[in-house]
Design goal:
single chain; alpha/beta; TIM Barrel; 9-stranded mixed beta sheet; 4 helices; 9 strands; 26% strand; globular; binds S-adenosylmethionine; binds the ligand Nc1nc2[nH]cc(C(=O)O)c2c(=O)[nH]1; binds iron/sulfur cluster; binds magnesium ion; iron; S-adenosyl-L-methionine; 7-carboxy-7-deazaguanine synthase; Aldolase_TIM; 7-CO-7-deazaguanine_synth-like
């Protein structure tokens, strides 16, 4: 099956437990909760999105015929930047990566020594073999993936109470302030919540503060 990729880039993971860690990002095109068109946002199932995932026209984006072609493309980006011998850390995001990521691509990445992380909205089944699964539930959308490595809630969201997620089978729980016109207020609210509920940690989207991709 071919893969549609919006962009590929080398950066630091800006979110969650691996914040600050160098990674190659694979941003898959398309999402099941929004078309990505501004004109559709008001009726989208997810209205908080901060990302352009439409099309395959970004840097390092394109259509990849098979897992080998895409795995080579992603690893190449790591080795351009790294001379360390440390294995590639690949973060699959989107859009919604679980519309496209499959076990064959994960296998091809593992064969190249990669560690594979995934950022998902949790509404689709996950293939086997993911090394680090981050689930970010969206208000009103049924959560299929109720376990994983980290749960990362964008906060606040109307209709979402973090307490309703606190008993799910995740190792780490993060609140990530919603990046919109109220970012300062949202950050303060998330900070206050984490101080009152220490099970939750703050994820500040380091990339915004560092002005990196
Ligand atoms: C663009 S999404 C792509 C992956 C997947 N579709 C998802 O929603 O998890 C990547 C991460 O950014 C988060 N995110 C999206 N819009 C955001 C915003 N406005 N403020 C803070 N985080 C946001 C998502 O919740 C998710 O954790
Ligand atoms: N630096 C950086 N870290 C990220 N972590 C998750 C991201 C995403 O868009 O999924 C992201 C991103 O876009 N940039
Ligand atoms: S589910 Fe993820 S990619 Fe899709 S619109 Fe929401 S935040 Fe954006
Ligand atoms: Mg992002």
């Amino acid at each position: 099956m071919p893969y549609s990729v919006k962009e590929r880039f080398y950066s630091l993971q800006g979110e969650g437990l691996h914040s600050g860690r160098a990674a190659v990002f694979c941003r898959f095109a398309g999402c099941n909760l929004w078309s990505g068109r501004d004109s559709d946002r008001a009726r989208a199932l997810c209205q908080l999105c901060d990302t352009d995932f439409r099309g395959i026209n970004g840097a390092g984006g394109g259509r990849f015929r098979d897992p080998i072609e895409l795995a080579d493309h992603l690893c190449q980006c790591w080795f351009i930047h790294q001379r360390t011998g440390i294995h590639p850390f690949i973060i699959c995001t989107g859009g919604e990566p679980l519309l496209q990521l499959d076990a064959r691509l994960i296998d091809a990445l593992h064969q190249r020594g990669c560690e594979v992380a995934v950022e998902t909205n949790g509404t689709r089944r996950a293939p086997r073999g993911i090394d680090w699964l981050t689930v970010s539930p969206k208000a009103g959308q049924q959560l299929l993936l109720t376990g994983g490595d980290e749960l990362k809630l964008v906060y606040p969201q109307i209709g979402i109470d973090p307490a309703d997620y606190a008993a799910l089978a995740f190792r780490y729980f993060f609140l990530q302030p919603c990046n919109n016109a109220q970012l300062t207020e949202n950050t303060n609210a998330a900070l206050t919540y984490c101080q009152a509920h220490p099970q939750w940690r703050l994820s500040v989207q380091l990339q915004r503060w560092l002005n990196i991709p």
